[in-house]
Amino acid sequence: MIKKLLFFGILGILFSCNSGVKTPEQTIENEGTSETGIYGDEISSENPINGKDLLSLMETNDSVWVTMKSRIISNCQHSGCWMDLDLGNNEVIKVTFKDYAFFIPLDSEGKTAIVEGFAKREEIPVDILRHYAEDDGKSQEEIDAITQPEMAYTFEAIGVIIEE
Asked: pTM of the prediction?
């Protein structure tokens, strides 16, 4: 059962970001520049933790449900289906959105995000790492250089608030 869920989850990632085909709702949601607002479920912006606090929590927990606030350092340039948040200490957390039910604007890099959901540390397979690199606009040479899975912090958000 777990293998089936993982298989379909990976398929969802591979085909949702890279298809290049957007529904009218996705197109409207991602048009324009400097968009701020709430994406996905409405979440509270009260008392979010920072990246340093999340890293401390992850030292003693496999996964945690948190509300966190951090700067967006990159995001999917195809459909807005993921973003990387700065945790400090040269650490990054890859944020995806539960059930791909929502997307963020393509010009979100540099803004501040508040996210609520599950954070965990897990091994990311080579095919998914290459997919993220492609979505991030990396060159084919950079994509081909990815040959090993890596351990990474990941976050599945139920909602996002994007601020300036």
From this structure: 0.77
Please check whether residue 83 is in contact with residue 71, taking contact to mean a CB–CB distance below 8 angstroms. no
Whether residue 24 is contained in a domain is answered as: no
28 within domain boundaries: no
What pLDDT does 26 receive?
38
Element (H, E) at 116: strand 112-124
Tell me which residue of 61, 115, 47 sits closest to 87, measured CA to CA.
115
CATH number of the domain where residue 124 is located? 2.40.50
CB-based contacts of 81, cutoff 8 Å, min separation 6: 13, 16, 17, 96, 97, 100, 103, 135
User: End-to-end distance of the chain based on CA atoms, in angstroms?
Assistant: 42
